[in-house]
Each structure stands twice: as C-alpha cells, then as structure tokens.
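My current task is to audit a protein record that another person submitted. Alongside the sequence sits a line of tokens, each denoting a local backbone shape. Please read both lines and tell me whether the tokens look consistent with the sequence. Do not assume that whoever made the record got everything right. Thanks in advance; the entry in question is below.
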Amino acid sequence: MSQLKIFPRQLLRYALVLLLVTNGSVVELQAQEHADPRWITTWATSPSTLPATDDDYAPLQDQTLRLIVHSSVGGGSVRLRLANYHGDQAVKVGAVTIALQSEGSSVQTASLQPVSFAGSAAVTIPRGAVIMSDPLSFTVPELTNLVVSVYLPQSSGFLTAHALSNQTNYLSESGNHTASGSLPVAAETPAWNLLTAIDVIGNDPVSAIATVGDSITDGWGSTLSGNQRWPNHFARRLFADNGIDNFAVVNAGISGNRVTTEGNSLFGENLQARFERDVLALSGVTHIVLMEGINDIGMSSSGGGELISASQIIAGYQNIIARAHARGIQVIGATLTPYEGAAYYSEAGEVVRQAVNAFIRSSGAFDGVIDFDRVVQDPAHPGRILPAFTQDNLHPNDAGYKVMADAIDLDLFR
C-alpha cells in the first residue's frame, strides 16, 4: 500500500484546512496562511498625505500610536497592513498590538494580543513600501471598534497617514505602551498613521464593497468618533437584512480628493493615481460605489483657476470603470450631491455637476446607479442640500448620511 507523502509546506497547508470530527460535530480550523482565499478586508483607509516636500513636520520618537478603527465583517483570524508610501526614510516599528476598545484610549485587556512580522515583534518598513503582518488568531466581532497600537522607537521621519479620519486617535507619552490597557496620553490626533487595512477570515464566504470618494464618503461633518459615515450606516443595513449575503464595507474616501488632479497635501493623490493601491489591492473586493468629482468642480475654479469640464471628470470615471471591470469588479455610480451655498460654489460649476450627474444616471457606463443627489436635495431648492441634513451646504450631517445609506437599493448587491 502506497503512503501519502506530504512535504513540510504541504503539511502546513493540509493542517490548515483539516476538518476535525468531535462528538459527531465538524469543526473547521481557522486558516493561518496568506494564500487562503477567504481573506477579506474588513476595514481600510486611504493615505491622504503626499510625499513630504519640506521639513515642516514633527517626527515621532519613542512614542506609541493608538489607532481606533471600526470593523465591518467579523472573523477569527486577522492580519494588518502598515504602509510607508510617502515617508522620507525607512520607518522602524518596535511593537504592534491589537485589541478591542474599552473606551477612549483604553482597551479590553483580555483581548490584547501582540502582532508579529515574519515571526518578529519588530519590523522596518522601507520607504515607499507596504508590509503585511503574520496572520493571528484573534476574534474580530462585526461592527466593533478595534485598537491597533504601534510603537515607534526611533525618529520616524515623515509618516504616511490618513490625516482627517473623523476619529479621535491617541499619541502616548514616551515609551512602548502597546501592551498597556490604559495609555498615558500625550496628545489626541485625527490621523490614522501607517495603518492602511485590516483583513479577517471567517467561516462564511464574504466579499467586499469599496466605497470610493472624497470627504462625503470619508464622513466629514458626522459626529466625531461616532461611526456615522454613510458607509457605516450602509454596513449596518446590510448586516440587518437577512435576505442578503454579508459584505464587508470598506472606506476609500479622502477628504478633498479629486478624480483628476491634486492640490493640498492633505487631500491625497488623484483617484487615477491611487486607485490600484487604495482599492484594487484590498482583499476580496467585488463591488465599488464611486462618488467623487465635486472637489474637481469646486476647487478647480477657486482662486481664479479654470473650471474643469464635465468631460474631464467623465473620462476619469471611464478609466476607473475599465480598470475595475478588468478585475471583474462591478462599479456602482453615485450622483454628486448639491453644493449651492458651499464656499467654492459657482453657477458655472453647477452646470458641470448637472452634466456629470446626467452621465451617471443615463450613460449605462456603470453597473448600477445610486442617486444621492435626489435623496438629500431640498425640494424647494434642488441645488441645495436640505438644511436639516447639513451644517455647511456641502457635507451631510449624521441624519443626512443615514438618509443616503437608507436610500441605497440593496438589490444592487444581491
């Protein structure tokens, strides 16, 4: 009788998918291998920084960052992505932990676990690089705040970050406090530094919806640290509907971002440039909701600049659609919401917005349409957001974001 020969790497893979039968029940072992196809991105953020062009920043040294993020789908295994895309030097990371949040900067100590990189607690992220942690057995509940703590022992140089997270994060006093239940807080910060994505594995097949856009997707104007962005409300709707499969909902919005160009160093690279990194590189994305272009219109004409044309924005959409379709990803187009009364509003810009929205609604270029414009507009003044939904005539508030999420036809994702 021939014997089955399993070499060490094959043995590992075999063990990861082995089914144990105990007392008549079948228990599936959690996979702990990067190649496992069940990895799904439960949370992500897009770096909004641009490469440092001067020395007007304060590097961190011998301090711990404590970053608060909100999961969508849950899982029993987790891995992190840390990025140094825009740094001016390699970044030394001395230790990383993950835990469930208690409140503020405190964690549930029973949940706190160290994260490793190729078996080591420390790792150096080369300039321009992204690294992935070792898979870790860690229970990530759905729709729950997680805490990732990162210790930077040496001068960090310029740190890649999502600068305006709409979430309070924390910076410690001196020392490695990654394993501390309570952080000795030196400062609060709105930035998510270095951390760009969290992937999980669960037992059920799940895919991800990437919401791509600007500050309206980023959640600007919603309650600080309240997880009241429209993608958060959308995830809760999906999870509450037993008639639809679960999806992870990940946020690839950057406040101030544009489809075609970039300006302020806090607003990130244009969508064409960042699309591969911020969307296509995430795990398990099958759908994209694209809502971006209002900053192209408003910012292009600010300060005496030349107003962008609708055809330029539309060409950007067509490029994004083509690149997504090449990966088998569906793209749902979302109309641009009203902005009359905003600081950069112009009547000429409103003409461009209407032309862009007409393309989204009727061109057939998208795989589906979400009409956010009509959901939040003031019926008496369609060029404006309903006053109950906004404080600045550009960004919705909590109520406005919820109305947007509630208006999405879930049949687009069945």
The first strand starts at residue 19 and ends at 22. Residues 206-413 form a domain with the Rossmann fold fold (CATH 3.40.50.1110).
